[in-house]
Amino acid sequence: MIARAKMFIVAENIDDSIKSQTSSYDITIFKSFIDFEKYANEVPIIIDTLVISAGTLPFNGVNMMRVVTLLESPFLNITGNVIYLIDGSVRYEAVNDFLGMKGITNWAVYQGDLSIRFITDIVTGVGRQQVEGQNEIITYRVRATEYIKQQNQLKYESDSKKYYTDEDILGDIPDEEEPNDIQPAQENEVIINYVVGPDDIDRTLMVFLLAQYRSMQGKTLIMEKDSEFHMLTELVTKAGLEHEYIDISDVMSDVDDVLKRIRSCVSTLVVIGSKRRVGYDYNFIMDLLQHNLHSEIPFIIRECSFKEIPYGYNFTVVMRNMVPAVLKYCNEIQEKINPEKVTFIGVQSCNYGTLNLTSKEMKAVIESVLGINGVTVQVVHINGIVLRGEEVVYDVFSILNRGNER
What we know:
Layout: E1 5-10, E2 25-30, H1 33-42, E3 45-53, H2 61-71, E4 76-86, H3 92-102, E5 107-111, H4 116-124, H5 144-156, H6 166-170, E6 191-196, H7 201-215, E7 220-223, H8 231-239, E8 244-247, H9 248-253, H10 255-264, E9 269-273, H11 282-293, E10 299-304, E11 315-320, H12 323-330, E12 342-348, H13 359-370, E13 376-381, E14 404-405
Parallel strand pairs: 1-2, 1-3, 3-4, 4-5, 6-10, 6-11, 7-9, 7-10, 8-9, 11-12, 12-13
Antiparallel strand pairs: 6-14
Helix pairs in contact: 7-8, 12-13
């Protein structure tokens, strides 16, 4: 039995019924790009074609960088093409300009209404109008015995009526000793995300959401900074997500045992919380854990007040997207801001109409107060504490494109 070429489809409005429309592909469907990212980061796979709908992954700089980065993953190999489907709200020329700018040649772009019928036509080939450079499978309609006879005749026919084997042609080349394959030792340094903001639920909630996303890629460590009211511990408890919980009292009594637990635990989300009022130095303990786990855990997310802005490092500032909050907390920033190292996040958890600033409006206020230009500002709408299953806006992941430090 001949194995069918594998096709992955990333589209929220497609279901398994599309598999009956074509027999030439082994189709796997992902309802969101998050699901596809998680799968590609966990399972090595070779596929022929990847189809992505702009209804699931809109055309913008952040999303395109996510796709390009994922396609370079060592776990993912695409032998054919990436087919990107856009609707009328996206300029076809803009997508082509992007592909040309990045030197990408194995993408095909089709424009339509992104309906089930349109995507099905593309998958089956009915709606394709351009050559995508895929290899063709040719079936020879001859008997097996005749085909073998033809191939043997062609193999031995030459002007000299003599067949030269590879051994004859390469016989004069001396054997070359293979060098020993020495694999240099390499340590993967931990990535730190610094989240700066006022001591309130917005900063802690953003840390928790980022930790959920990071945990899809590898083991991620977060720690309770609020030693009095335990906001992070409350969020983790109410979310009901799979995680490894370690109480701060265990860290203070036997840090060596805690390090062993973090290294050996199966869960990719590690939370150091507090369920009792115990005094401790958050930065001292995080520095201790970071120093001992710097090459053994991929991600650590740290909370910082405005007095703890990490000098010389990339970081993210979190605040409400309202003028009073922006003015108040921008005035608390005493350090000189380098626009290339900071991202401002405006959190909107309630709709107050015109009181809520857009990303553009918030950017103008911040640049005016701080007296700088070119800052990156993103307003994020948050309606839940669980990354998957609740209405957390897709742009939350753009935060991770900046504010990382190895």
